[in-house]
Amino acid sequence: MIKQDDLQQKAVIITAAGDNSRWGNHLNTLKHLVPIDPSGQTIIGRTVEMLKNTGVDNVFVVSQHEQIIELLKEDVEVITPANCNSLADSILSSRKYWADRTIILLGDVFFSQQCLDKILACKNSIKFFGIDQFGVPDRYKIKRSELYSLSFDSSMQDIIERNLKLNSTMARFKNNRSLRFGYLKMPLVKKTGCLKLLYHYSYPPKPPGLLIKAGFKKSAFWRIARFLVSKPRRTKIYGKLWGLYFTTAGIGLFDSPDYRKSPGVNENNYFEEIDDVTQDIDTKEDYDILLEKLIQARSSKKIVTTRDETGRI
Predict the structure, then answer these.
(1) pLDDT class for 240, splitting at 50, 70, 90?
(2) Residue range 176-182: average pLDDT?
(3) Could you tell me the residue range of the domain that residue 14 belongs to?
(4) Residue 263 lies in a domain
(5) Does residue 260 carry a pLDDT above 50?
(6) Which residues are CB-neighbours of 223 under 8 A, at least 6 positions away?
(7) Taking the mean position of all CA atoms in its chain, how far away is CA 206?
(8) Do 218 and 279 belong together in one domain?
(9) Cα–Cα distance measured from residue 106 to residue 92, given in angstroms and rounded to the nearest whole number
(10) Is 59 exposed, middle or buried (0-12, 13-18, 19+ CB in 10 A)?
(11) Same domain, yes or no, for 186 and 148?
(12) Whole-model pTM?
């Protein structure tokens, strides 16, 4: 049971400012606005309704999309971001609304009630919620690891803000040429942080395999060498929740393919896996999988995800 006093000290920020590039114009609407039940309820509208039903009053939506603003303007305060080049920018635009406990929810995620309750009840200084493709049951058909939400208290605000700014900057320099030379155009104060992130998260420190067998060890030299001659790796994380997760937790990207089990994550306890029907929607295929899950859930009535009596999942 979540105490009412705890809910009043929370600010829940739903991000919905993305460009829908992978979604395209499927169903002639934004992915946040696709129907997920026979009544036509939308994904983001359902999330707002669930929060209100749970007793959360401080709900904000970050979006520049007129359709979303029109749908939700009577129910929540809409924040129009000045810059939405990346998710990091969208979250930064909500900075003045952060509270004793701030919760970031992605607006294209279908949250189960169990998942939302777990996020709202979190008391850790910081916690990321998501799913690990390497350990998920086959029935959920997850093809990639995903983060759905972030919860943090006031003690982490400065750290979160700093790492969001770092991710925002790096998101502008994702391609090979920009990563090598774009930092030269940055203000001096940003260079050290961005270069550190660039070396640490884009170029592995390991020598080539034959040299490892010959006894060579990891070193910054190999990072610099790859920086000069190779394309950066895994730049897709920049500006996203994964980028914030890695920079905040201090986890290296090259020690394990399993994000959740990377060195540092267990002792920091920054990640909690959500093993249920909760799912984000990026593509038409994701949406089809979600609808299939919901049909199965309604027919079996094994998954209860809302508190109201409408019969919605």
Answers:
(1) very high
(2) 61
(3) 4-157+268-300
(4) no
(5) no
(6) 199, 200, 203, 204, 205
(7) 29
(8) no
(9) 14
(10) buried
(11) no
(12) 0.82
